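Translate sequence into structure tokens.
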Amino acid sequence: MSLPIIYASTSGNVELVCEYIQRSLGDAGIDTSLHRAEVTSIDLIKNADNMILATSTWEHGELNPFFAKLLSEMKQEDLGGKKAAFVGLGDRRYEPVLFCRGIEILQEAFTAQGGSQIGEILKIEGEPHTQLDSTVKPWLESIIQNLK
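Result follows.
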């Protein structure tokens, strides 16, 4: 199984989490690849059965703009039979009610087009460096079980 990880990262935090996910999945024997959303073709999503989508939340509950083109293209596709796990980063200090709204926008669009969600959305608040083992690892273990 090959599992693409498609992400939008500007400060490097989402990228850090995705690199951790890639290493951990590799350790579990799952082949993965990292793809920056702003240079990823919709063909990657169309050709993958399973994937991980990750983004930060921008401004007042918006999707990271690096994901905008791909999101627009996703909304034109039938994603039936596709499955995705979702990873969002955000900070409650700025918009408590819109915490991680960016990943929710992505998840809602994916499932509206017929795609299925794998597990729960992983939402990380603030700097992820200290949360990799405590938050990301248990989530990943659940995702791995769902993929089997």
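Note: The mean pLDDT is 93.
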